[in-house]
Amino acid sequence: MNKAERTKQFIIEQTASIFNKKGYAGTSLQDITAATSLTKGSIYGNFDGKDDVALAVFDYNLGRVKDILRREMLKSNSIREKLLVYPRVYGNIHLYPFPDGGCPILNTAVEADDTHPALKKRAQDAIVYWKRTIVRLIEKGISNGEVKVTVDPEQHALAIMAMLEGMTMISNLMGQSHYRKLIIGSIEKMITDLF
């Protein structure tokens, strides 16, 4: 990386947790300069503005989640084990280098729904990618005889995603870690029942 690329990466890494915790609207330019110890001019010399930083940070945080899931799935042999990676990781995010503030998809989707079309599009694309990944796993399981042929891949993919994100929202909002365990148990049962 050249100096400009290193500076951009530094800004992204230093502000990733701020955007993920405080959201786009809650993160100020002052937060960005304080986190990076850079001037406004340095920030604007590397990004077109706060919007540009926010989009780069979302991509960075999402990439971190994808990397965790990808690495865990590489350790798994069967479709069942690969699908169970989702509740294992989301149920134990403190054991992984998950972005501070939790799931960037959930955080961004809730905030950007009505306020930031470009971030909303990024979150939508992330949901489409996630759903497609789970659908493909289930379809592969059906084709190789692991998953019951009566299973609807899209329905189950959406249910898994909704339960994971709902679990994150409920357990964080209520501050009840046992809610996380209860919901993770339901997700694991739903996945196990596919086989």
TrEMBL record:
The keyword DNA-binding applies. SUPFAM superfamilies: Homeodomain-like, Tetracyclin repressor-like, C-terminal domain. This is TetR family transcriptional regulator. Pfam families: TetR_C_13, TetR_N. Residues 5-65 form the HTH tetR-type domain. One of its GO terms (molecular function) is DNA binding. The keyword Chloroplast does not apply. The lineage of its organism: Bacteria, Pseudomonadati, Bacteroidota, Chitinophagia, Chitinophagales. Residues 28-47 bind DNA. Keywords: DNA-binding, Transcription, Transcription regulation.
